[in-house]
Amino acid sequence: MKTGALSRLFGAVPDDPFYQPRKPLWLPREMCTPPPLGDAAPAGPVARRHALLINPFYAKSPHGSFGKHVLVPTLALTSVAGATPPNWQVRYWDENLLQGPPPVEPLPEVVGITVHLTFARRAYELADWYRARGSKVVLGGLHIQSCANEAAPHADAVAVGDGVQLWPAILRDIEAGNLKPLYSASYDSPYQLDPRPRRDLAPRDSFLTTTSLIATRGCHNRCGFCYLSTRGLQMPYRTREPEDIRAQFAADGQPYAVFIDNNLGSQPDYLRALCRALRPLEKIWSAAVTLDVTNDPGLVREMALSGCTGVFIGFETLTDSNLAHARKRSPRAEEYAWRVRLLREHGIQVNGSFVVGFDGDHKETFVELAEWIEANHLECATFHILTPYPGTPLFRQFEAEGRLLHRDWDKYDTAHVVFQPRNMTPQELQLGYDWLYRRLFSHVSIWRRRPDGVAAVATYLAGCYLYKRSNRLWHFLIKHRLVRRVWWPLVELTRRRHLAFRRRLQVSASPPLIHSMPPSSRSLVPAGV
Question: How many Å apart are CA 184 and CA 163, to the nearest integer?
Fold first, then answer.
């Protein structure tokens, strides 16, 4: 371990728990404070059969790219909109697009608000504001699953479970004047029967792409810190027909799609069929998968040939004992490096997600992690402080051990320490998290992680700097609805380069093992996101 790196991280004396905070990163007020609601909005009359769906504001971290918040519109709300009966008018509003508070003209008869842990306070504020003006308010979303009693005083109705099933029944009851305080549904219904999302409601110029897709629901993992392990939440694995997903992708008219599945690779045979359905579109896509997708190099090849340019992988940690404690079924940490190389040799960029603060972590963990990421040329990395979400096994464990520092949900955003770590102080964990982002997105580290192929370096650097080091630009683009127009050229360039890469890959022999591909096919084609 490099003593110099630890000294810079924790001060001249590595064991000293106190440190001088670094200069704060740029964070404009609009990105950390919700738009004021005010008292000037009129009360009633409501516009009958008008529904408004709101994604509430949440504070942004200066470490992450502001661009990731406008990657795609929330599929939860566009899916609910797709289930709206035809005799209702429905509108979508995302407060994170910096267009001000939600509209009141016309005043909607019903307001549906999705509630996540980190913006629960804002969701309740919006709910109270609209109810005071005569609208009926329905609250749903992940936070309602574990904290329905907390939300109930702010709503006319709370929806627990599958909102797509519940929404039509809620609207029928509103029409009949018989709205119930609680609606609940399981996730056992055939996912294939769900209506398609209303992507047309999202402002296209405000997002990198409006094509957010979900082909599968559920995950074979039940990690102790994941919301899928919330008590009472049973989400069996379900899939949609690959041809239906292909049709959705084609219909939205975008060159790039983001799959927001928890794990698109849970069933390898399904993923293979999906890739073959997408291949004729000659478009590009990215998705979250687990690292065991690399168990079959042939499947990775299918992904590349169908247009996969990037994967988001939850490595979580470099320590096997941490993986076991988190109850995550994953390849051993010692296998990470060759599996990453396999993806990169197929032109698939890896965005590695890492969690810090496990009981097996220590102060040296941060430097070890940064050095591993640089040594393995990960194009992008995302870091999260271990966070015990309410209702999860991790929350119950920390609560029983007296290790929760508070229940301020605004801080349960994976960017703040909300529990007492085992082998360091909360301040040291916060500092290590801060240092990781500063280190990995410094000029030096970005250059160290450049791809081997000279032809790919320019696109890689453009992606890194535009996405991770351009928050002032992102703020301007979001505010003026220029996201799609400015980012579009890089997306189209990526698509064309990947089509050329796929033609070379197609004529090469199917590689049974890593390193068997011809050198001409080994240059990285960055996804640009």
Answer: 9
